[in-house]
Amino acid sequence: MKNHNGATALTGTGRGLTLALLSAAGFGTSGTFGAALLDTGWSPGAAVTVRVMLAALLLTVPALASLRGRHRAFFAGWRSIVAFGLLAVAGAQLAYYSAVQTLSVAVALLLEYAGVLLVVLWLWAREGQKPRPQTVLGAGFSVVGLILVLQVLSGASIDPVGVLWGLAAAVGLAGYFVVSAKADDALPPLALAWGGLIVGGATLGLAGIIGVLPFAASTSDVTLVDRQVSWLVPVAGMVLLAGVVAYGFGVLAARALGATVASFVGLTEVLFAVGVSFLLLGQQLAGVQLVGGLLVVVGIVLVQADQKGTTRHSAATPALEMLTHTQETHAQANSPRMSSAVMADGTVPSSPTTRAKRSRLRS
Fold it and tell me: What is the pTM of this model?
């Protein structure tokens, strides 16, 4: 990413925001398609494992194409791939579905999305990126907005074990953004997503085999938009939108935006999820949810504007230093004392003090 005048960086940011929103929209469909399958007897573990494994299969060709001539980068980046698969894919899914066994879905989701705050704290502790006041304010708006959208205060149930599982899911979510943004540039984003989905799918499959994750599936028709459709329709939706688009575009967005901005934009997943459930399942929206959605958007705008200001400052600093250095050199060259000191061969004679220091060093 070139930063000569910040123009290329800002263009990349616009592309990154688009990809992040598409990724969040993809993730936002998983609940609706998954709910349609669960109503016919599917277990959450079976639904998410099928989604992850088939998404990895569909990403195979694009991932291999991105690795053309760079296959060594895939094996060199195995640590990032394993971390992505275990934390972002398998870990987050297993922890979330364990949390909802004893917590309401709203509370479990709120705890999982605390991972956005963990991203900020991680970057502060690990890389010294202390959050500025505007980012903190944006985080506050987003958290309050999530509470309203999820209606956490309405019939919330709290269980200590469930809370721990919810926080574990938050760690997985934070790992998703941190690993995606910080992976070695030599490892293409699609290859990271593909490899991570393979690792995550294998882990979820193993969890199902040993009984940690209950597996059950059905071929009965499901209900979407008040119509009976084949079970293949929600499976295809989960795999394409909540799998290929969500993970593939999500990693690309994190590379372009950085972990902090990408994670906050990822909060729009909740808004997309509410909207999709309204359109496909007929679930009604409360006024307080609309207010919460607005607060989430305000928080994201604040964080993005703060990070954009930091990017512009970082991009402008080297150019400003170069300009200052050029001006100082030009002023010295045009000064009478400097002009008179230039010798015929274009060199500047050393001062007596400098010559004395050199003689001492030689001796």
Answer: 0.76
